[in-house]
Design brief:
Elements (H helix, E strand, L loop, with lengths): L1 H7 L8 H18 L3 H10 L6 H14 L18 H7 L6 H16 L8 H7 L6 H17 L7 H7 L10 H6 L6 E2 L2 E2 L3 H11 L32 H6 L4 H16 L2 H6 L1 H6 L6 H13 L8 H8 L7 H12 L6 H17 L4 H14 L1 H4 L3 H5 L15 H14 L11 H13 L29 H13 L7 H21 L4 H21 L13 H22 L1 E2 L3 H25 L4 H20 L11 H7 L1 H6 L2 H14 L12 E2 L1 E6 L8 E4 L4 E10 L4 H4 E6 L5 E4 L6 E5 L2 E10 L8 E12 L24 E5 L4 E8 L4
């Protein structure tokens, strides 16, 4: 084909003889591999390694990396000649004249490692020489190869001058503390010797008292020549890798150095103590991203360090930063920081109160910070109590204002310290005990239960059978749910009253106990779905004739729609949902769809539409069975269990009979209990900006746009870059959905995200200012949590199935903003 193209003078993708040779080589090697003769394929690659085309040599090296390890047991070829080791062959091309071939040789060696072939230790020396290559791609690949060989031979001695080049990766293991500490040491060198400063040289000259007199042989002779290859820079204390990295002019290098420090400090407590000063200095970096990464790094190693007062003073100075991300990240750091003295605790409290005065929006974060600061340092807080509470041994002092956030912050610190310090309550005044009772009810997630002298536990009235070691709130949650287990033994009216009472108790529990808010709201939502279903099925109007079935149709249809919405919220607004809960949620959703089918059938004329609706519902039941086949034994006596028993009959029945069977099974099916997960959190969002308090409208010319800054905090949102959307509702009913960019999201702490973006508004001219609503939505795909059945692995779900449904869920309070599009000037 190539010769025919050349004869006809037609240019094409195979116009180059080298390309043609390359394609033939790949095809022949592939055929040999398929025919079970990989050795011949490797031998063919070796023969073409001397080709003049770099592309041919690259592909030959790539094939050797993919197939070469298969011939490692072959010592002689078909002609009886010895077979060279494939690693030696690839290593010879580390010095190829073309940098692309050198890079391909290194990647082929890495491919051998990925396929399980142990690399030779001699490759390390070859790779180290490539670190001085003129081309960046070669040096980058060489660093990866050095790391692989270092992991394979961690106890073997290596060339010191090259360890400094890639220790910044941070993933080096089994490095001695001596070498790690040298990476923080920075000394001036001259001719591979430590260069003394001018002050040191002058001091030595002054102490000697004289210059060279010539009496001592060779006292002024020059230093001897030094073999550079015989000096180990690591042992000479000249590494300073992290010092150079933290002072680099490129902020990306400084961030990489901080991340590497974190990884190494987590595995070495002694190294963590020594690198603490360097991390604290990075808090003053000019780039916000570097400061933020330094704070996150120190939080990860906080268990191995204790801050001195001078270090704490530098850390607390960051509280004046204008970035809310920085301040909240520092609050998270202080939550898990160890302080050495009571003066440090007092300094931290004073600076946090200044932060509260300057930035009132940080109130919740500061209260949470002081909660953990007090619980971690009870003995240091104890001597500060009289000063903090302004108590006097002889005189009564004025009672502080309970509406003061600063006073509440002080009480949160003291009460959490008193939990493990039984002598502290003796220092409280009478009004302090009253304030404790108030805060225990209003801020129970910040104030713990205390055993006060002459008083009972505030929360002990929940249940007299609860032991002091058990969590009374958790016990109350379990008792509330156990009451629901007896639903089948009550009449319909009693069932509804019990469900309404339990839902109310769970909602109140979630408001009082933030730790149990996720579980309580999750359980209350599921019980609300069950209550809606019972109300829709127990109405007396189900027995009336279809033409009179108007009011009941609206009630039942609204109930089915609300159940569907609640089940989507349960599935996608909560993190920590396990497969057991997903099955129960989809079971409830299937019941809602059955109810919707029954309502539609009683109000629809004609059989043709019913045939399609019944067939679609039965397909969804079959899909449910295939997806959750492993969980079906746990769904005994449930709606879907009875439905699957009658599936052959339903497939051959008419729509009227199918509707009748579904209505009967919905009424007779047992209440399916919801297993509670160990840890569950509800996704939430709070819009900080716009505040929605200004009466001055944003004025802009109609047809043009105006930028609206949006700043929001996100809690417990999974994958916010792809799920969080911004919605704008205009007064005329128009809705606009904005997809924020991935760069608009920040991660100030675990489970928390920050959204800082701009929304562009535009509209036609209005006669007067009106409000637009801005809210955050959580987008979902209903196939995200459904496990694919074995017959569907690797394929796509049918669009007719329920998995094709996509929607959004509002998860923030709407904020109203005044805007005024004015007509353009003529």
């Amino acid at each position: 084909k190539q010769r025919e193209r050349e004869r006809m003078g037609v240019p094409g993708p195979l116009a180059s003889a080298n390309k043609f040779q390359l394609h033939v080589l790949l095809c022949v090697s592939g055929f040999m591999w398929v025919l079970g003769n990989p050795t011949q394929a490797v031998r063919l690659c070796k023969q073409h390694l001397t080709d003049t085309s770099h592309g041919v040599r690259n592909k030959c090296l790539q094939l050797l990396g993919n197939l070469g390890s298969l011939e490692k047991s072959v010592t002689k070829d078909a002609e009886g000649l010895p077979v060279r080791d494939v690693q030696k062959i690839i290593g010879d091309y580390f010095s190829d004249q073309d940098p692309r071939v050198r890079t391909a040789a290194i990647k082929a060696m890495l491919q051998l490692h990925e396929r399980g072939l142990k690399l030779h230790q001699t490759i390390y020396i070859q790779a180290c020489k490539l670190l001085s290559d003129d081309y960046e791609q070669v040096r980058s690949a060489a660093v990866q190869l050095i790391w692989v060989v270092s992991q394979l031979y961690p106890e073997r001695s290596v060339l010191g001058p090259y360890l400094d080049s890639f220790i910044l990766q941070g993933s080096m293991e089994q490095v001695s503390s001596h070498f790690l500490e040298q990476t923080l040491d920075k000394k001036l060198m001259s001719d591979l010797r430590r260069k003394r400063t001018a002050h040191e040289r002058a001091k030595e000259l002054y102490s000697s008292g004289e210059f060279s007199s010539g009496r001592k042989w060779g006292d002024d002779a020059p230093k001897e020549e030094i073999d550079t290859g015989a000096v180990n820079l690591i042992e000479s204390g000249a590494c300073g890798a992290f010092v150079h990295g933290l002072e680099d002019e490129m902020y990306e290098v400084r961030i990489a150095a901080v991340e590497a420090l974190c990884m190494l400090a987590q595995s070495s407590p002694s190294f963590a103590e020594k690198c603490l000063d360097f991390l604290v200095d990075m808090f003053n970096d000019e780039i916000e991203e570097v400061r933020l990464q330094s704070i996150h790094t120190m939080r990860k190693i906080s268990n191995n360090i204790t801050l001195r007062e001078d270090q704490l003073d530098t850390v607390l100075a960051v509280l004046e930063d204008s970035s809310r991300d920085i301040r909240e990240a520092l609050h998270e750091l202080l939550c898990c920081t160890n302080v050495s003295t009571k003066e440090g605790i007092h300094l931290a409290l004073v600076e946090l109160l200044k932060n509260l005065t300057k930035y009132p929006t940080d109130r919740d974060s500061i209260w949470k910070c002081l909660k953990f600061l007090g619980s971690r340092h009870p003995t240091l807080v104890l001597p500060l109590v009289p000063e903090l509470l302004s108590t006097h041994p002889f005189f009564d002092t004025a009672e502080p204002d309970m509406d003061d956030p600063a006073y509440i912050a002080v009480l949160v610190l003291i009460f959490n310290a008193a939990k493990t310090c039984p002598t502290m309550p003796a220092l409280f005044s009478d009004h302090t005990f009253r304030h404790y009772a108030y805060l225990r009810d209003s801020l129970s997630h910040l104030v713990p239960a205390l055993r006060l002298p002459g008083r009972k536990l505030v929360s002990s009235a929940v249940s007299p059978n609860i032991t002091p070691h058990e969590d009374p709130s958790q016990q109350f949650l379990q008792q509330s749910l156990e009451r629901v287990y007896s639903l089948q033994h009550l009449d319909p009216q009693g069932t509804q009253e019990l469900l309404e009472l339990t839902i109310r108790d769970l909602q109140r529990l979630g408001e009082l106990q933030s730790e149990l808010a996720g579980v309580a709201d999750f359980s209350a939502t599921y019980l609300r779905c069950q209550l809606l279903l019972i109300k829709a099925l127990q109405e007396k109007l189900w027995n009336v004739a279809a033409p009179l079935y108007v009011k009941q149709s609206d009630l039942a249809s609204a109930a089915a729609k609300q159940i569907m919405e609640e089940t989507y919220k349960m599935e996608f607004m909560y993190s920590g949902v396990e497969s057991k809960q997903v099955v129960t949620i989809h079971h409830m959703r299937l019941q809602a769809k059955a109810l919707q089918l029954i309502v539609t059938a009683r109000t629809t004329r004609g059989l043709d539409p019913l045939f399609g609706m019944c067939e679609k519902f039965l397909q969804e039941v079959d899909f449910f069975q295939r997806c959750f086949i492993a969980d079906l034994p746990h769904l005994q006596d449930s709606f879907v269990d009875k439905l699957l028993d009658l599936m052959p009959r339903l497939m051959t029945s008419k729509p009227a009979e199918v509707i009748k069977i579904l209505q009967t099974m919905l009424r007779q099916s047992a209440f399916l209990h919801l297993p509670l997960p160990e840890q569950i959190h509800k996704a939430s969002a709070t819009i900080i900006e716009p505040a929605g308090e200004s009466d001055n409208p944003l004025r802009f010319t109609s047809g043009l746009v105006v930028a609206l800054d949006v700043d929001a905090t996100l809690e417990h949102v999974q994958d916010p870059q792809s799920t969080v959307k911004v919605q704008v509702l205009y007064p005329d009913g128009q809705a606009q959905m904005i997809h924020p960019k991935p760069a608009d999201f920040r991660n100030p702490g675990p489970g928390r995200h920050r959204l800082i973006t701009q929304v562009y508004l535009s509209h036609t001219a209005w006669t007067e200012p009106c409000q637009v609503e801005v809210r955050l939505l959580l987008a979902y795909n209903s196939s995200a949590r459904i496990p694919k059945p074995p017959w569907m692995e690797g394929g796509e779900v049918s669009p007719q199935m329920e998995t094709s449904i996509e929607g959004t869920i509002p998860f923030s309070k709407p904020v109203k903003v005044y805007i005024m599009p004015k007509p353009a000037r003529r």
